Amino acid sequence: MGDRLKGDFSAAAAHTNILQDVVGSGASDFLLHSYHRSFNGFVAKLTVAEKRKLEGKEGVVSVFRSRKKQLHTTRSWDFMRFPLNVARATNGSDVIIGMLDTGIWPESESFIDEGFGPPPTKWKGTCQGNSNFTCNNKVIGARYYNSEGDLEPEDILSPRDTEGHGTHTASTAAGSIVQKASLLGLGEGIARGGLPSARIAVYKICWSDGCSDADILAAFDDAIADGVDIISLSVGGLPQYYFQDTIAIGAFHAMKNGVLTSNSAGNGGPLSETLSNFAPWALSVAASTIDRMFVSQVKLGNGATFEGMSLNTFDTGNTMYPIIYGGDAPNIEGDQFGAMLCIPGNLNRTLVEGKIVLCDVASDTEGVIDAGAAGTIMRVGDFKDIARAYDLPATSLSMSDQADIMDYLKSTSEPTATILKSGTYENELAPVMASFSSRGPNPVTRDIIKPDLTAPGVNILAAWTEAGPVSGSNNATVPFYIISGTSMSCPHASAAAAYVKSMHPTWSPDAIRSALMTTAYTMDVATNPDAEFGYGSGHINPAKAANPGLVYDAGEADYVKFLCGEGYTSKQLQLITGDANTCSEGTNGTVWDLNYPSFALSTKYEESITRIFHRTVTNIGAAKSSYKAIIFAPEGVQIEVEPAVLSFQSVGEKQAFVVTVKATMIKPMISGALIWDDGVHLVRSPIVAHINYP
Question: 499-524 pLDDT, tens per residue?
Fold first, then answer.
């Protein structure tokens, strides 16, 4: 995926000529899309043999199959100490956030353009609307992509969002202020994005069956050329090497053109090495909790009360219902095990109808609904921190609570229970890493810590599509909904990046990311045992990020050196970047010299290891300032910094330093930190030594 060719040229003609050598005459029939606005490449229908032939042609960097990626949520901004009255730039409306997602519901109150003037003059995009979709001065652009052509009945060939995900992420990042927003009374309050003054540009890449690689690249191509400042992408797939991954490819060209890409880390947690997005030139965002959770109480006929996690919007008052264990109501055509798990078709409707059913597993409740149940109590699943909405009164309880309910069922011939409407409770432990949030280490480059940081991603209230009813709404549409995922944490970070961009319009993508990482709140290891592999540099702190003191800056040249050190050839780099970059012994860089705001060193064995890191920081604080190195080195690690003091005489001045880390691997992972302190700013970078187990 090379750089955009210089001068006037016809991308379609050039790409057709390349294809003609592979497929023969009629090559234009095989060409699906040409990328030409921001980088150079194309999508084509090829057999395996034709793919191999194309791979061998001069000028071709790589050929890979277009696959489907999957989508990875307002109390959250106040929780992050980022109130509406925080210092903000007057040019916030000049910032454009490009949302690559499922589209948008433009009529939502979150996207009203009252008070907005015309789009900024840098905007080069368009509104690919139709009779049922229009843009305004808030949602200034919208495009949709459907390279595969097939649509499900629920899909609309338009930027309009019928799934909800894109509307939710867009309003989280840049939604206007909406009073008294809630999900049918749950989570009521002010809904707003992190940068309500920002403009939104929509690129619909995802449909009901997923997000095509070909469409992802097309959206990157357009978004960069359209003039967006930040790209927010809550999508991911299986981990790939950097230039076999469309998101990494698109993010590289975005970085080269001054645009930061904010990615969701993935929802593969709590297992290790499950990250979806980890390219070093993009921001990888994990998910953590906020200090609000939704709890639904269960009351038994004997007066006992239990608290479960759910978004139960059904208000049954104190009406008591008969309660039965699913395993005691098997369908004659099913089996007892299936009934215990409340699998559809395995429950006896005669025994279950009108009763609350106790199930041994968390489910989508289809089985109990089909059997006519009045409600269900499920055993909490793998993700104990998420509240979900269902189409009947439901909640999830711990195994011990379920055991107590089973004892109650055995103690009486007529057991009863009720499930109360959910209420809002304070989560005193927050922030804690979400159970689903993907963990490191980095699956490709072990000595770069990923994710970069964490942001709120659990039980987030934001705008929603009104294309159809949602779970828990009693078959009604709702303007706001509550969901969880790194898809929800990503737009929080995107908004924070946009906020920093509004305060510092000339900053590079890496400078913005550095500011977000080095000002992040530290997290409690006691409640987050995965440490930096879970939360990266810490919990995002948008207000502090606008004034970080120092930044670790980098750009295309730095990443070229890094990629040379990673084994990429001069030919590959020249085609990718469009410049005369070469890899040689003198120009090859190492991962330890990439000017990254964190430090990592790994070894394959339980032994001692030493690494030397070269870094450069840029002063963006007071013109005359002096920073002292503060080192946190736990048992097993020695950290030396030279020089130990950095003195600056002007804004924009750069100072280089060297960090030497010696680690004796007494355990699989050891965490330390380096902080540059001038008495006002604390510029913190984590230092992690870890064993790279095969």
Answer: 999 999 999 999 999 999 999 999 99
Place of tokens 């990311």: 513
Active-site position among 38, 66, 72, 101: 101
The distance in angstroms from the start CA to the end CA of the chain is 31
Q: What is the pLDDT of residues 139-173, one digit of tens each?
A: 999 999 998 887 888 899 999 999 999 999 999 99
Q: Parallel, antiparallel, or unpaired for β 260-264 and 230-233?
A: parallel
- Greater confidence (426 vs 600) lies with 600
Q: Tens digits of per-residue pLDDT, 557-594? A: 899 899 888 888 777 776 566 567 778 766 678 999 99
Q: How far apart are CA 391 and CA 386, in angstroms?
A: 17
Burial (CB count within 10 angstroms: exposed 0-12, middle 13-18, buried 19+), residue 511 = buried
H or E stretch covering 70: strand 68-71
* Annotation marks residue 553 as catalytic: no
Q: Is 514 an annotated catalytic residue?
A: no
Separation between Cα atoms, residue 11 and residue 34, nearest integer Å: 6
101 is catalytic: yes
Tell me how far apart the alpha carbons of residues 584 and 157 are, in angstroms, rounded to a whole number. Answer: 49
Which tokens go with 23? 């497929």
Question: Residues 262, 487, 508, 537: which is the catalytic one?
Answer: 487
Task: Locate 160 and state its tokens.
Answer: 């309009």
- pLDDT grade, residue 31 (50/70/90)? low
Q: Of the listed 33, 165, 492, 690, which one is catalytic?
A: 165
Residues 450 and 284 sit within 8 Å (Cβ to Cβ):
yes
Question: At residue 24, does pLDDT exceed 80?
Answer: no
For every residue of 151-191, DSSP letters joined together read: --TT--SSSB-SSSHHHHHHHHHHPPPEEEEEETTEEEEEE
Are 20 and 8 contacting, i.e. CB atoms less than 8 angstroms apart? Answer: no
Can you spell out the DSSP letters for 91-146? TGGG-EEEEEES-B-TTSGGG--TT--SPPTT----B--BTTB---SSEEEEEE--
How far, in Å, are 357, 448, 516 from residue 537 at the CA level?
44, 12, 9
pTM: predicted TM-score of the whole model, two decimal places: 0.88
In the predicted model, is pLDDT for residue 351 greater than 50?
yes
